[in-house]
């Protein structure tokens, strides 16, 4: 964890947020310093996004104070960013530049290229994934002191998630991150903020310690509750005996008993976990899917080249690749929704497939009961058996009274759970999941992993969640933008290991073939662009200037008489020193990136 220098970037004191019921956030106290990487975790509906909006100044708390120094620049990325006010992707990203970092303009186009987004792409025709990429680039280029990211990986493909991970590691400012992507959280955070039952707890370690910490907190709570229960039982027994033994009671002890009862009844119980289940509906045939030479193109764009794929009973196949590579199209070809340009798909016998598409829309005006009770009664048919809607909703972490809520009032995570509730009512021995992890909170995600682990049927899923893939699938189908598809045994980490081995073998073969290729025309070397060359030169100039300023400020602060003579001047120098050090670190990292790129290009 980086050392905390200088004043906090943001401080929350006694913050309380309520919407008429129990406090969503109750008496929150926290501060964030420069360089910190904090994840904000908690169940859907616990108040994470609301708390982040409070930090961003978009929501006023009911009680408490928020202090952000005027010199601190805060950038907030919402779950559903809007880019409608800018005509193109490039203009949207450039709008994130502030007056004091206009020299980073060259990064706008660079970021978009790295994210595989056409800078001239119209914002009106962007997909959800493209919109998210552009909004991310816009937030990152603003060079904030405090960056607030609410579910930045939703609708992002794996290359973009990995790009985000690397870019966050280079930022000099502090980051607070809400995400369900465990791999991103484990690799990118140094502090954990846990929102649960209105309380905001803080752990001075990254997300990799969260599971252990959570169990420790729950264990201590259980011990405390047992002690309270024991004391309550003792006091109740005394009261019963006292009534029959004498008319006069010890009023002080009686008040203590009533107080204990109030405390016990006011405890906000931990929410249960979703009771998800899938009934396999009998075994399918041994061969579930046999696809031979299937391919699909749209015009001149090849989604996937002729592909042979055999899926046998019990397989769990994960499909990965960039957005637009053809992953969902392959699923639709397998399901028979689309006809391949060539090849054939043979489905096995006794199949009962269920296709869970997280992009499926729900009527915003419909109630949860309308969605689940298709017969018009208050019963849900679950695996052929009627179940009362209130009880079924509780299995998916809703309250019974939520049956009358409209879909439009649900959060993204609640919508995802409702879709699962709707689609898991049927028996299935072939489960096809298209981005099942979008918007799920971590606890529901963990339960879905366990559910799929115990499931006896066959699973085919599209996912960009690396940790989820590692825990669930038995093989990976990796799509490339050129239409190639490669199958790897094991999970995502296994795929990376196999690719690394293949690359090592390929490098050896390339070295052996160098002599044979020597007579062939060499490719023209690419050089740094004009903007990149200018940025490299400017970085050197700025490093010299900032280094001189830092040295001068360090000399001023080391003067023992300065604080006694002018405390305000001393504090201003300390603050300015921290700011100049951060700027110098950022410029040094940018210089290193450009210099490394220059060396790589020259060595080609």
Structure, explained:
The chain starts with 9 loop residues before the first strand and ends with a helix. The chain folds into 4 domains: 10-212, P-loop containing nucleotide triphosphate hydrolases (Rossmann fold), CATH 3.40.50; 213-266; 287-352 and 427-500, P-loop containing nucleotide triphosphate hydrolases (Rossmann fold, 3-Layer(aba) Sandwich), CATH 3.40.50.300; 530-603, Helix Hairpins, CATH 1.10.287. The strands form 5 sheets. A 6-stranded mixed sheet has the order 5-6-7-3-8-9, sandwiched between helices. The chain has a 6-stranded mixed sheet with strand order 14-17-18-12-19-20, with helices on both faces. It is globular. Helix 17 (530-558) packs antiparallel against helix 19 (567-603). The protein has helices at residues 48-55, 89-94, 106-114, 128-141, 158-170, 182-188, 210-245, 251-266, 327-335, 368-372, 389-394, 412-423, 442-454, 466-472, 492-512, 514-517, 530-558, 560-565, 567-603, and strands spanning 10-17, 25-32, 37-41, 63-67, 74-77, 146-150, 174-178, 191-196, 199-203, 287-298, 301-312, 316-320, 342-347, 353-357, 379-382, 385-388, 430-434, 458-462, 475-479, 485-489. The protein has 19 helices and 20 strands.
């Amino acid at each position: 964890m980086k050392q905390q220098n200088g004043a906090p970037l943001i401080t929350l004191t006694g913050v309380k947020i309520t919407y008429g019921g129990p406090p969503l956030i109750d008496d929150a106290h926290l501060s964030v310093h420069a360089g910190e990487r904090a994840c904000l975790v908690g169940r859907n509906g616990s108040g994470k996004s609301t708390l982040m909006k409070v930090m961003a100044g978009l929501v006023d708390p009911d009680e408490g104070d928020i202090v952000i120094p005027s010199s601190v620049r805060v950038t907030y990325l919402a779950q559903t960013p809007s880019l409608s006010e800018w005509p193109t992707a490039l203009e949207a990203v450039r709008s994130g530049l502030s007056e004091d970092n206009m020299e980073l303009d060259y990064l706008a186009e660079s970021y978009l290229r790295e994210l595989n987004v056409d800078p001239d792409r119209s914002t009106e025709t962007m997909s959800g994934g493209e919109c998210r990429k552009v909004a991310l680039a816009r937030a990152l280029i603003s060079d904030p002191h405090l960056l607030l990211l609410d579910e930045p990986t939703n609708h992002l493909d794996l290359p973009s998630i990995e790009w985000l991970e690397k870019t966050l590691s280079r930022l000099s400012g502090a980051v607070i991150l809400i995400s369900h992507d465990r791999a991103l959280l484990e690799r990118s955070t140094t502090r954990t903020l846990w929102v649960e039952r209105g309380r905001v707890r803080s752990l001075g370690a990254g997300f990799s310690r969260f599971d252990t910490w959570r169990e420790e907190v729950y264990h201590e709570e259980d011990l405390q509750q047992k002690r309270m229960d024991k004391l309550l039982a003792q006091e109740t027994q005394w009261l019963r005996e006292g009534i029959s033994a004498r008319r006069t009671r010890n009023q002080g002890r009686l008040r203590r008993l009533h107080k204990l009862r109030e405390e016990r009844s006011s405890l906000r119980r931990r929410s249960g976990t979703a009771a998800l289940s899938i009934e396999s509906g009998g075994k399918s045939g041994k061969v579930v899917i046999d696809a031979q030479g299937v391919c699909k193109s749209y015009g001149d764009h090849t989604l996937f080249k002729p592909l042979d794929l055999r899926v046998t009973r019990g397989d769990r196949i994960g499909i990965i690749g960039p957005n637009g590579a053809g992953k969902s199209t392959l699923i639709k070809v397998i399901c028979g929704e689309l006809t391949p340009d060539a090849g054939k798909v043979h489905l096995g016998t006794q199949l009962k497939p269920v296709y869970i598409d997280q992009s499926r829309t729900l009527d915003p005006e419909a109630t949860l009961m309308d969605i689940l009770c298709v017969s018009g009664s208050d019963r849900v048919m679950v695996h052929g058996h009627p179940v009362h809607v209130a009880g079924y909703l509780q299995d998916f972490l809703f309250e019974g009274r939520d049956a009358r809520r409209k879909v439009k009032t649900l959060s993204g995570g609640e919508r995802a759970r409702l879709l699962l509730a709707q689609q898991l009512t049927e028996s299935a021995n072939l489960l096809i999941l298209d981005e099942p992890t979008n918007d799920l909170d971590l606890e529901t995600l963990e339960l879905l992993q366990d559910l799929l682990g115990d499931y006896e049927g066959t699973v085919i899923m599209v996912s960009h969640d690396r940790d989820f893939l590692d825990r669930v699938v038995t093989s990976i189908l990796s799509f490339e933008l050129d239409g190639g598809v490669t199958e790897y045994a094991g999970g995502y980490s296994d795929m990376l290991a196999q690719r690394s081995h293949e690359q090592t073998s390929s490098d050896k073969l390339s070295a052996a073939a160098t002599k044979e290729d020597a007579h062939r025309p060499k490719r023209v070397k690419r050089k740094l662009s004009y903007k990149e060359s200018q940025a490299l030169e400017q970085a050197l100039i700025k490093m010299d200037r900032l280094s001189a300023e830092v040295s001068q400020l360090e000399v001023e602060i080391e003067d023992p008489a300065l604080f006694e003579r002018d405390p305000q001047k001393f504090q201003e120098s300390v603050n300015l020193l921290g700011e100049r050090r951060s700027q110098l670190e950022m410029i040094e990292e940018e210089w290193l990136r450009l210099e490394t790129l220059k060396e790589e290009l020259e060595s080609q």
